[in-house]
Amino acid sequence: MGISTESQFHVLAVDDSLIDRKLIERLLKTSSYQVTTVDSGTKALEFLGVHEDDQSNPDIPSVSPNTHQEVEVNLIITDYCMPGMTGYDLLRKIKESSSLRNIPVVIMSSENVPSRISRCLEEGAEEFFLKPVRLSDVNRLRPHIMKTKPKDQQEDKQENKEEELGKPEFQSREEKEEQQQQQQHHHLQHQHSNSNKRKALEEGLSPDRTRPRYNNGLTTVV
Amino acid sequence: MDGVAQLQKQLVDYTASLFQEGFLDEQFNQLQQLQDESNPDFVVEVVSLFFEDSERLLNELAKALELKTIDFRKVDAHVHQFKGSSSSIGAQRVQKVCIAFRNYCEEQNIEGCLKCLQQVKHEYSLVKSKLETLFKIEKQLIAAGGSIPT
What we know:
The complex is a heterodimer of chains A (222) and B (150).
Chain A: E1 10-14, H1 18-30, E2 34-38, H2 41-48, E3 50-51, E4 62-63, H3 65-68, E5 75-79, H4 87-96, E6 105-109, H5 114-123, E7 127-130, H6 135-139, H7 142-146, E8 185-192, E9 195-202
Parallel strand pairs in A: 1-2, 1-5, 5-6, 6-7
Antiparallel strand pairs in A: 3-4, 8-9
Chain B: H1 2-20, H2 26-33, H3 42-66, H4 72-89, H5 92-107, H6 110-143
Helix pairs in contact in B: 1-6, 3-4, 3-6, 4-5, 5-6
């Protein structure tokens, strides 16, 4: 961990398990983050200032301009399996909201389901942590959190010698391969309008869709 | 300082045995690492939450499995929670039974589920008793003027 000279970042943690909320809170506070915990996706959206009272368009949450400016959230970390609104549902709602979509979202799950992981990453989650979450996982949050700091408060210097910050500014442009210290992850690059996304997949998943397939049933003579 | 040294040794040995016998796993170490002067009771607090939560879940499981028509999805949901919480504190043997338990739920195997319920109750009561002993030794050590070795 680097020296904490920057102002505090605020993380919103969402988990229906009291034990896991206590754990994640302690992990985040140990890393000098300010933490708010809620026990559901609905409460998370309320906290973020999103109101779903627009009956004609239930899929488009309307943001109350008065409330959402009161709390600045730099990262949302949410459990996947929750009753009612799952972490995935919450992720989608955040990405659909014009005011919230820039907040990085991280998903946690006790189950290692590759299709679930891909789906979350495709939807825009920055990382997918397997539970129980550890300090080493929380250390990986820093580059994602740094992206959301406004330009005048940004620190471009590499405070964390172990991690490299590729993009201090959050704007859409072509992505280049980034070097990461996370050996277990591969990176997928997609270009989405208005957002930069780096994707980390667990080892074992094959993200490269451009690789030609030779086993298409035809006999090939070498 | 003989008393303190003795208690420290007792604590270290007892903790080691819990790991060796598989009652606890690495996650318990992670919890201990999160405890410090500003949060001196963190482990006890989390484990206490686990005890309360587990007792509630065991009650729910017993009730759910007594019904004439068993809702296996509901049973599975409880076991999933139990598996999660035991994993979060490092209660390895409890977690392992939960994994088997979930398989029986998926198969809708009543016998298997009832068996697992007994097993998980047993493993839970074992780890509870072990952790209570561990905390007792820690308390004695601190009362004698010692500190918990990291």
